[in-house]
Amino acid sequence: MAEFPVTRAIVRKRLIFIFAITVLVTLLLVSRLAWIQIVMADELYEQAWEQWNHNMPISTGRGSIYDSSGRLLAGSNAVSTVAAIPPQIDNPQNVAGALAPVLEMDSHKIYELITLERSAVYIKRKVEPEVSEAVREMKIPGIVFFTEEKRYYPGESLASQLLGFVGMDQGWAGLETYYEHYLSGSEGRMLYPADGRGKQLPHNFSRYTVPPRGYDLHLTVDESIQHIVEKELNRVMQEAAPKQAMALAVDPRTGAVLAAASRPDYNPDRYDTYDPESWALAPFTSSFEPGSTFKMITLAAVIEEGLFNPDEHYHCPGYTVVDGTRINCWTADRGGHGDLTYFQSVGGSCNPAFIELGRRLGKEKLFRYIDAFGFGRPTGIDYPGEGSGMIFHPDAVGSLELATTTFGQGVSVTPIQQVMAITAMINGGYLYRPYLVEEIRDREGGALYAREPEELRQVISRETSEMLIELMESVVLDGTGYAAASDIYRIAGKTGTAEKIDSDGNYGGNDFIYSLVGFAPVEDPRLVLYVAVDGVTRGPRLGVHTSAPLFKNIMEDTLNYLRVNPSGFSPPEEEI
Questions:
Q1: Beta-bridge partners for 534
Q2: Which residues contact 48 (CB under 8 A, 6 or more apart)?
């Protein structure tokens, strides 16, 4: 076969072809690089960042809780959390064995954690400083530390049920959970660079991404008044050994809660060692038959409707019969009150007299006032798990249900409902919504939210309010509340002895709730106070020995703390 000679022209064509191919490939490569470096740069950087950097969530600083005077009730301390980067741990068996006694954990559990196929894991969170320091001294590669915050309560059990407590990362009870959204802040991150196998890159350092802290709560509660209340509750628990005791103090001019507590309670720093039933604040969450304190609702209704004549006489034989059912007065064993005026029936807490007043009023009007005073539904206080009580539906009310409702039997209410109703009775007739948090502030002190008193409606007239004040003072001066009378302040109120239902659903046992709700000073009410002692097991089983002294002591000490002038005295003139 003959060979064709390679001419200069052919060589030139081949060179031109090769050059064109080279230029084309170069343009394609440059275009691809430009696409990667310019168009895809941000997306690829994010993907690379995710591959290079590993992270672990970190809880941010929680907001604090302060009383009305700025005193700290709940705060946070910096503590260390021990974590691990599993790919960086060379001998997990030895590491687990070394950490177990220091962290007081099972070595098998630690081994399982540090051998997980994860970039980072918690070993033990929020440990005490001496524990974290002991682990640091071991200098174990792959064991890292970061700072978190741990909740603490300076007053220990003071206001524990009100404040609640915090679990590992969030509030679980009380205001800590109700205001979780504001207190908790956001989640932070610990970032560290690592290679594809999770090994931390040399000459690089981990860093924290910490978001803003949570907001602070400033309460209406006064720490000193709270201390007075709890001191007296502790006393009655020791002397009478009841199943439960509680107290609630409110400013009648605004609806602001000044103190609230119940016993038994708990220490929020060790909440998991207590019965969960002690976590809730009974004045807000518990409902029970009120007994004679509920007579004030009947009384307010008949006065407002013009059906109450204080000078009219009534004869109490110690009982009355309604639809064939005998209903006793508490004076039945001595033949009743006998002849008395309706004014005296209030101080004497006469059941038959109030049944007669309820009959005159009728169920429609009575239950309209019960609803207007806020019974049968939550008050809307800013606290989790508020009770609503239970009131008869008017359609289900017959003569017997009407009769028992007039003196607080067969219905259930909460202490906060009773307090707010009394507040309306003495402030001119205005029902307020109770509240606990006055302001929410940021860490610089700026107000995010400021609460104003919320007037819901006027339930009764000012004239009715003035008569109710006079009648409630008579209960303390000449009636069943005599043991709550003070030599310092004019006190008014209403006692209650609620007979509890036994296991068979019947009344007539020997288990009572002794309560007293009232206010002082009469001439210018500054404090509405409710107290109750449930199931006394030691000493005299009467309200005169339990709820009345409890009420009196709290009232006198609180008014003295508030620098309220003694009744009947004028403030001293300032010297010029």
A1: 244, 513
A2: none
User: Are residues 95 and 114 in contact, defined by beta-carbon separation less than 8 angstroms?
Assistant: yes
Number of domains composing the chain: 1
Q: Is position 87 within any domain?
A: no
| Residue range of the domain that includes 270 | 223-561
Burial of 275 (0-12, 13-18, 19+ CB in 10 A): exposed
Residue type, 101: P
Identify how many contiguous H helices and E strands the chain contains and give both numbers. Answer: 18, 21
Taken in order 247, 503, 512, 405, is the CA torsion positive or negative? positive
Q: Give the model confidence (pLDDT) of 161-178 as tens digits.
A: 999 999 887 889 999 999
Reported as half-sphere exposure (CB side, CA atoms, 13 A), residue 232 has a value of 28
Q: Is residue 15 part of a domain?
A: no
Cis peptide preceding 521, ω within 30 of 0:
yes
Helix (H) or strand (E) holding 502: none
Q: Classify residue 574: in a domain, yes or no.
A: no
- How far is residue 339's CA from residue 425's CA, in Å, rounded to a whole number? 28
Q: Would you say residue 423 lies in a domain?
A: yes
The yes-or-no verdict on residue 150 having pLDDT over 60 is yes
Which domain CATH number covers 399?
3.40.710.10
The band of 572, judged by pLDDT with boundaries at 50, 70 and 90, is: very low
> How far apart are alpha carbons 385 and 43 in whole angstroms?
48
DSSP string, 215-253: PEEEES--HHHHHHHHHHHHHHHHHH--SEEEEEEE-TT
SS3 for 98? helix
Q: Residue 350's pLDDT is what? A: 94
Write out pLDDT tens, residues 34-54.
Answer: 777 776 666 655 555 555 555
Of 346, 176, 157, residue with least CA distance to 266: 157
Which residue in the list 292, 345, 412, 547 is annotated as catalytic?
292
Which residues does 379 contact at the CB level (< 8 Å), separation at least 6?
Answer: 386, 414, 416, 417, 420, 433, 434
* Inter-residue contact 467 to 346 (CB < 8 Å): no
Q: Any residues with CB less than 8 A from the CB of 174 and at least 6 apart, and which?
A: 160, 161, 162, 163, 164, 165, 279, 281, 383, 384
DSSP H or E segment with residue 327: strand 325-328
Q: Among this protein's residues, is 292 annotated catalytic?
A: yes
Q: What percent of the chain has pLDDT over 90?
A: 62
Residues with Cβ within 8 Å of residue 3, at least 6 apart in sequence: none
Q: Under a CB-based contact definition with an 8 Å cutoff, are residues 246 and 230 in contact?
A: no
For residue 573, what are the contacts with CB-CB under 8 A and spacing of at least 6? none
At 441-471, the pLDDT tens digits run: 987 778 788 999 999 999 999 999 999 999 9
